[in-house]
Each structure stands twice: as structure tokens, then as C-alpha cells.
Amino acid sequence: MEEMRSMFSHPAVLFLWIQSSSGWMHPKCQIYDSSEDLEHFPTWICSHIPHHAERYTAACQDVTAIEEDLLGLPPNINTLCISMTHGENRSMSLGFFSQFQDLEYLYIDGCFTQILPSGNSHLLNLQHMYLIDKWGTGSGCCDCHIGPHTFIDLVKLCDLTIQGYRLTAMSPDVFHGIPLLQSLIIIEPCVDDLSEILCRIMTIKSLIELKIVAPEIQSINQSNCSILITNESMKPVFNNLAFSDFSFGEITHIEEDALAWLQNLTMLTGVFSQEVLLDLPLSGIKQIQDFSCSGINVIDIESICNVVFLLSIKKIFVNNFNTSSLSMSSVELCTGLEYMYLSGLGSVHPSPHLKWNFISSLKNLNQLDIDFLRDKNPEICSFQKQPITWLTKLTLLINIQILFAKQFICLVKLQYLDLTQNLISNIEDFAFLGLTNLESLDITSNNITQINANTFYGLHSLTWLDLRNNPLIHNIEAMSFTHLMSLRQVFLGQVHNPLTEPVIKLNLTLIFGGILSQLTHLYISSAMRPMQLTIGILGQTVG
Ligand SMILES: *[C@@H]1O[C@H](CO)[C@@H](O)[C@H](O)[C@H]1NC(C)=O
Ligand SMILES: *[C@@H]1O[C@H](CO)[C@@H](O)[C@H](O)[C@H]1NC(C)=O
Ligand SMILES: *[C@@H]1O[C@H](CO)[C@@H](O)[C@H](O)[C@H]1NC(C)=O
Ligand SMILES: *[C@@H]1O[C@H](CO)[C@@H](O)[C@H](O)[C@H]1NC(C)=O
Ligand SMILES: *[C@@H]1O[C@H](CO)[C@@H](O)[C@H](O)[C@H]1NC(C)=O
Ligand SMILES: *[C@@H]1O[C@H](CO)[C@@H](O)[C@H](O)[C@H]1NC(C)=O
Ligand SMILES: *[C@@H]1O[C@H](CO)[C@@H](O)[C@H](O)[C@H]1NC(C)=O
Ligand SMILES: *[C@@H]1O[C@H](CO)[C@@H](O)[C@H](O)[C@H]1NC(C)=O
């Protein structure tokens, strides 16, 4: 009943409703109001588009010819998503869409031989446009001719995404004259020369956000666009650029001052050798906020920290670094870092014990994430001379097997600890002692079989505890959770019992004591086996 009412509230939908009840529906498009229950619609085509309360959407698939296949769509749609049949050889005219006066979002997945401008028929309300060739043609890239000033009539366009279209098939003036463009995303433009991108976009003065993902670019060279070959060339070309995110492939060469036009980068992603990495500060870039750096071969931490220092990097993601080079002194120049992710993924060398006292040099680090390394018995606090008062979040995926007593005792300000997917099978008593500020503890997907009265001792602030996917929790000692005064949510996951006993018996009062009444979530599963949960003196059997 509710659903019917919402459908009848929109005159155009009412029209379609009547049509569909007499057996007629649009052959290629689903039309819906986003206030409806969308469960029965194939919304995947439009799924990346933010849903707006009153958005009136048409999602069309298997489209071969836009003009014919979209015939009969209501003129007042706001969002149009089109998925083209691939392998077709057709051109598209933006003029076609001017019949939809309220169109704000246009998303097209497909490849055309050319895209023609809308001419005089303006698309007055179009704000967001996506041209995506997800599948690519034979060459893996869409060769679509787009002439000069093609988008000049899109007077409200503020956000444009182009993916999988070969940029060199477009005129050098293709983006000229779009008056309000603020956000431009270019993904896989199939060029290896940054100039090809830069020379096409640098006249877009209104740009605030620029994202480029160009895995084929290997050299960062001086651009030879005419606008840059002046004495102004050392100045940035964009006046309002607040967000810039560049992702390249394996960088083999960086020319001096090649990025001087940019100065600040929000995010840079690339694969570097140690030598080329050290050229990055000479590229003319003054500052990078977030830097994701993978090594062709292992990179020494000193080299990375040198770049971190020179470019005032705040967040770093490092893959394939030399784990032996990690030490208190080698990270000294990394002291400005707020976030550090270290991963051994791709490394062929077995990692030695990490020298965990490196943390004491990183006095601004809030969050540390170490993945895909092996240190089964990490001595995080053993060699720290003073408490670590800056770290609040720690994630370790390093094949830990045992948590020993006082393992984390120096991490006095830690609020969040993630130990998911290690091999922890044994937690010694008092392992978490000292973590008085810890609010969230995630030990899912380990090999824990037993919880003792002092396993979680000292976690006064813990509100959230997740133990799911530990295959064999069958032994929870009395009073194991009674001292967790702040606990609100507990996920014990699947509990087991010795096979000799047919019914799993848990006396919740015995293990939680007085804190049971303050829990908002308690998740326990017995995997179809009978389980008897006791609360206080009342027993209850659940299936
Ligand atoms: C598309 O057109 C081009 C040039 O006219 C031709 O070479 C190509 O084979 C056509 N492709 C298809 C799938 O029809
Ligand atoms: C960049 O410069 C290097 C060295 O001068 C040259 O070998 C390379 O071809 C250039 N790359 C591009 C894309 O122009
Ligand atoms: C820039 O250099 C490339 C390759 O070196 C060349 O193909 C292109 O024509 C040059 N562009 C201009 C505007 O000089
Ligand atoms: C750049 O400036 C120098 C000296 O300031 C001048 O000699 C030169 O002609 C200028 N070049 C251009 C392209 O304007
Ligand atoms: C780059 O960032 C620095 C520090 O945040 C700022 O002072 C400078 O004005 C920025 N430069 C540009 C071109 O945005
Ligand atoms: C890794 O770092 C250590 C210590 O700085 C150094 O002795 C070793 O040569 C480095 N290994 C590689 C492969 O660079
Ligand atoms: C889990 O622990 C059991 C014994 O406690 C051991 O036999 C098994 O190998 C462990 N599994 C893993 C993946 O370490
Ligand atoms: C469960 O434990 C509580 C607290 O120790 C105890 O009072 C109660 O008798 C136990 N209930 C059962 C059925 O064993």
C-alpha cells in the first residue's frame, strides 16, 4: 500500500504505472523515483550516482542507438544512466539530450566513434556527466573523436568524468569554454605523455578538483604546451585548485621542474625505484599531502623519509620497502607524518623482526598500519624508553601467533586496535594491560580457543569487542568480561563445545557479571547446534 501511494504521487510515474499494468513497459529503460523502494530495479547501472530525495531516474541498458532506444522517456527525468551494447560503431550527439530540460546527471557507459556538441539546444541543467568505457574495445581504449569546444554549451556542468577514452583522439581544445567546471576526473586516458593531458586542461580556470589516473605515464617530463612556454611557466596554472590526485604507473624518469605548474598535490600514487624517488623533490612539487609509493625493488626507509621531509608529506602508504632499514634513526625525517601504512606485499625477502622502537621517533603519528609482513612475536614495547602518547590507532597483520603479557603496555593513548587475520592462538593473561584508553578491539579471524578471566584485564574504556571467526572458542572462563566496565557491544561469534556434550551451555551471568545489563549488542552463534544460554538463574534454550 505504501509503495502504491508513492508511485501515484508523481504524475509521470502514474502514467507509466498505468502503461505497465496494461502490459507495456519501456523496452530498454527502467524509470523510477528514488523515493521508491528500489529493490526490484536493476539500479547497478546508476549505482555510483548519489541518490537524491526527489531524483527521477531512467536507467537504460543494452542500448544500441540512443535516439531510437530512448524514445518515449518522460521529459522531466533528472538522472539518465545509459549502458551501451559494446562493439557498436555509432556517433552520439549531445543535442539529443536537450529534450530533457531537468536533466542533471548523465552517465553513459559505452564507446562512440564521435561525440557531437549540442549546438544551439543548450543542456541548461546538466551538472554531472560521466563518459565511461569500462570494457574498452579491442585496443582497450575508446577511440572517440571529440572536436573543439564540444562541451561549451553545458553552461552548468560542474563535474565531468571521462574513463577509458583515448585523449589523443580528442581535439586539443576539447575542454575549452566550459564555464563552471569544478571537478574533472580523467581515468585511463591511454596516453604516456603527461603533456597530452595537461595541455588540454590547463585553460579550465574554474577547476577546484582534478584527478588523473594514468598508469601508462612513466616519465614526468616538462610539458611543451604553449601556455607553459612563457616566463610564467614556473607559476601554477590553476588558481583555485584545492584537490589534486595523480596516479601514475612505474615512474622511470622525472625531469627537473616538470610539475612546477602544480606546486601542491593532495595525493600522488606511483611505483618508483629508489633513485627516481629521490628526484621527486626536484620536480617542482612543493608539497604532497598523501603519498602512496610502491618500490620496483625494495626502497630504504631513509630515502622515503627524505622525500617525506622535503615535501611535507602527512600520510604515507609504502609497499615493498627494506624492512631491515626500519629503525629509530632511519625514520627521523619522517617525524611530520600523521599516518603511516607499511606493507610487505610484493616483497620477496622474508622480513626480520621489526625494530619497533622506530615508533618513538614519529611523534606526530596518530595511526599506524602494518600489513603483509611476518613478525609472529612483535616486541612493540620492549625497547621503548617512554610511553607512546601520540598513537591512537594501530592495525597489525603480521602473522602474530602469541600475544604475551604487557605486549602493548607503552601504547597508553591507543583507542583502536585491529589484530584481524593474524594467527593468534594464545593470549597470555594481562596481554592488554596498560591500554586504558582502548575503545575498540578487533581480533576477528584468528585461532583463539580460550578466554581467561585476565585475558582482557585493564581494558576499562573498551566499548566494542569483536572475536568473530575464531573457530574454536569453547572455553570462556567465569568472570572473563566482568571488569570491562564500558563494554557495550560484544561479538563472540560461533562458540563450540567439546563434542562429547550435545548442548552448548553458556551462563552469561557467570562470564559477564554485572555488565550484562549495559550491553546493547551481544552476538553469539552456535551454528545450528542447540545452545543453552543462562541469564541469572533463568535458563533458556535456543535452536
Ligand atoms: C567501426 O568503424 C571502423 C571505421 O569505419 C571500422 O574499421 C571498424 O571495423 C568498425 N567496427 C565495427 C565493430 O563495426
Ligand atoms: C621524457 O623525457 C625522456 C628523457 O628526455 C625521454 O626519453 C622520454 O621519451 C620522454 N617521455 C615522453 C612521454 O615524452
Ligand atoms: C610537444 O612534444 C611532443 C613530443 O615531443 C610533440 O609531439 C608535440 O607536437 C609538442 N607539442 C607542442 C605544442 O609543441
Ligand atoms: C623571459 O624573461 C627573460 C628575462 O627576464 C627575457 O629575456 C625573455 O625574453 C623572456 N622570454 C619570454 C618567452 O617572454
Ligand atoms: C601550497 O600549500 C602551502 C601550504 O599549505 C600554501 O602555503 C601554498 O599557498 C599552496 N600553494 C598553492 C599553489 O596552492
Ligand atoms: C636493507 O637495509 C639494510 C640496513 O640499512 C642494508 O644493510 C641492506 O643492504 C638493505 N638491503 C637492500 C636490499 O637494499
Ligand atoms: C590453530 O590452532 C591449532 C591448535 O591450537 C593448531 O593445530 C592449528 O594449526 C592452528 N591453525 C593455524 C592456522 O595456525
Ligand atoms: C549462572 O551463574 C550465576 C553467577 O555465578 C549463578 O548465580 C547461577 O546460579 C548460574 N546459573 C546456572 C543455571 O548455573
What features would you describe in this structure?
By secondary structure, this protein is mainly beta. It has a domain at 14-197: Leucine-rich repeat, LRR (right-handed beta-alpha superhelix) (Alpha-Beta Horseshoe). The chain is 9% helix and 28% strand. It contains seven helices and 32 strands. It has helices spanning 2-8, 11-21, 66-69, 194-201, 274-279, 301-310, 508-512; strands at 29-33, 56-63, 79-84, 91-93, 105-109, 114-116, 128-132, 145-146, 159-163, 183-187, 209-214, 219-220, 243-251, 253-254, 264-272, 287-299, 315-321, 339-343, 367-371, 393-397, 402-403, 416-418, 426-427, 440-442, 450-451, 464-466, 475-476, 489-494, 504-507, 521-525, 531-535, 538-542. It has a 20-stranded mixed beta sheet. Strands 4-6-8 form a three-stranded parallel beta sheet, with no helix packed on it. Strand 15 (264-272), helix 5 and strand 16 form a beta-alpha-beta unit. The longest helix has 11 residues, at 11-21. 35% of the residues are buried. The structure holds 2-acetamido-2-deoxy-beta-D-glucopyranose (NAG) (8 copies).
